[in-house]
Amino acid sequence: KNAVEVVSNSPVELNGDRENVRVRETNLGNVVADSLYQYGQTGFSHPTDIAVTNGGGLRETIAKGKPITKGNVIAVLPFGNTISQIQVTGQQVLDMFEKSLGSILQVDKDGKKVLDENGQPLLEPSGGFLQVSGVKVYYDTNLPSGKRVLAIQVKNRTTGRYDLLDLAKTYYLATNDFLAAGGDGYTMLGGAREEGPSMDAAFEEYLKTADLTQYEKINPNSRTISVDSKTFSLPAETPQTNVPANDATTNVPLTYEVAGQFSKKAVVSEKALPNTGSEQSIFLLLMGMVAGLAGIL
């Protein structure tokens, strides 16, 4: 069964390396998040506004020039998580992304900051780093943890434009059941939720029809966007009808009033559920399987 082909030939490498998916936006993260976003448009009682999943739950790279099999899909998403949708306020969305982007910075053996290709400091890998769809988050790692988010834009499903996050508005967030319950320290999430299918099932269905050539760039910096706050200007949007990965932007000046509304520090607790992809979560998964077998016997 694992050898069954989902895609006959992948035109791109979808990168799931730990030093990428736990640090910054990747093309694999975009594809998986887009699969949640697409399912959420019709799979729940209300269409999804934002989809996120934690990088620690993405465990394998999909090679270019080879078939994508059911086994590859399971290797990427091995934990059996289901898709869940919860209601969140804009403030909770802001707090969620401050948490996602709150890691310490990488340094080399000489104690110097490790920079990305745009000259911005890279975060230390964190299993809780969010891969996203339906949203654009502009952040500066030079700023203190908890104050790095400069602006957030949420895709308007009617116009195709990205509107500024409204802190008082209610949004529908699709994610995995682990994060929806507050896992990986996301204590701002939780509450009543709708349950969908397994993430791997939604990912597999999305792969069957997705134009994977749109995901060619491994680190696109197009959704979770690392910028220098000293020179940052908020992009103006051209309405689009395609998936978030393809949305184009042009720059317009950013008023300081806009940036200022995203300065509240997230309240974060690490005393939550075990991290997805950690040894603890794997142990708990195995123990659950053993317990289930014991019940059958």
TrEMBL record:
GO terms for biological process: nucleotide catabolic process. The keyword Signal applies. It comes from the Bacteria. InterPro entries: 5'-Nucleotdase_C, 5'-Nucleotdase_C_sf, 5_nucleotidase/apyrase, LPXTG_anchor. GO terms for molecular function: 5'-nucleotidase activity; UDP-sugar diphosphatase activity. PANTHER family: 5'-NUCLEOTIDASE (PTHR11575:SF24), 5'-NUCLEOTIDASE-RELATED (PTHR11575). This is LPXTG cell wall anchor domain-containing protein. It comes from Streptococcus pneumoniae.
